Amino acid sequence: MAKNLDKEGLSSIADNYQLFYIDLWGVVHNGIKLHDEAIKVLQEINKKSKDYVLLTNAPRPNSTVKSFLEKLGMEKEVREHVFSSGQAALNYLKKNLIDKFFFHIGPPRDFDLFNDFKKMKSDNIKNSEYFLCTGLFDDYDKDLKYYKKLFEDNLKKKMICTNPDLIVDRGNVRELCAGSVAMVFEKMGGEVVYFGKPYPEVYHQATNNKNKKVLSIGDNLNTDIKGANLLNFDSLIISNGIHKNEIKEKGIDETSKSYETICNYIQSELRW
């Protein structure tokens, strides 16, 4: 049963851990503004000289995520702790696929992911050797049937997915993410290589977690909590995020069970 920390705060358990993986979207900000209480938590963790990573399933390089956080008003000392799924994917692409033509699926704002090898971007799906999926096209950001049609004759190509999230809430608006497109491709029989939570690679790339007592904090059971479970880390779910309505209706234990996950702690918002 998940222990509720709303009264005692994260400070009541922080000394038990040496490393914190903290999700950004849904925990530290909502895509539009920073959450003040969460920022206080990061400042307190800094004061205690504890290690932490702001681990995000953003399909863009670390530098782009840091620039976005700077615009939201996050101080430099804190945003230096960012590591993104986009960065993990970029490290892999540079090492393994830098000389291969790819077909990009996603909006223009994600183009900086492949700045170093943009000449390999193909506008012709037939000529491409793999799919690089960072999100949905702006013109088809709600229509998954469009992607089904797109993939029909191209299932032999591999897909690199830089954000396993299915959905995200930008303020009060729910949006589809790259993971939803990848799921369509996978269900049709295509092969997908995922970068980001819950897959262990992104945790290991982000920092050395060997022999450390770790707490993973996030609002998504499918990614943040499942990733923690796979690596035997303790976990804290933020209930006022992506699963807000489900948790309100069924409670955290039943909700987490339906996603085949286990949460150690729950907080409505991240507070010290």
Your description of this structure?
By secondary structure, the protein is an alpha/beta fold. The chain folds into two domains: 3-57 and 198-267, Rossmann fold, CATH 3.40.50.1000; 87-194, 3-Layer(aba) Sandwich (Rossmann fold). The chain contains ten helices and 13 strands. The protein has helices at residues 36-47, 62-72, 76-79, 85-96, 144-151, 178-187, 200-206, 221-230, 244-250, 252-258, and strands at 3-4, 19-22, 51-56, 82-84, 102-105, 130-133, 158-161, 167-170, 173-176, 191-194, 214-218, 234-238, 265-267. A seven-stranded parallel sheet has the order 1-13-12-11-2-3-4. Strands 5-6-7-10 form a four-stranded parallel sheet, covered by helices on one side. Helix 9 packs across helix 10 (252-258). The two termini are 21 Å apart.
Count the DSSP helices: 10
The count of β-strands is 13
Shape: globular
Helical percentage: 25-40%
Distance between termini? 21 Å
Q: What about the largest sheet?
A: 7 strands, parallel
CATH architecture of the largest domain: 3-Layer(aba) Sandwich
Q: Structural class given helices, strands, pairing?
A: alpha/beta
CATH homologous superfamily assignment of the largest domain? HAD superfamily/HAD-like
Number of domains: 2
The unreliable regions are: none
Strand numbers in spatial order across the main sheet? 1-13-12-11-2-3-4
Average residue pLDDT: 96
What is the CATH first-level class name of the largest domain?
A: Alpha Beta
Instruction: Report strand %.
Output: 15-25%
**Elements, N to C (H/E):** EEHEHHEHEEHEEEHEHEHEHHE
Rg for CA atoms: 19 Å
CATH topology descriptor of the largest domain? Rossmann fold
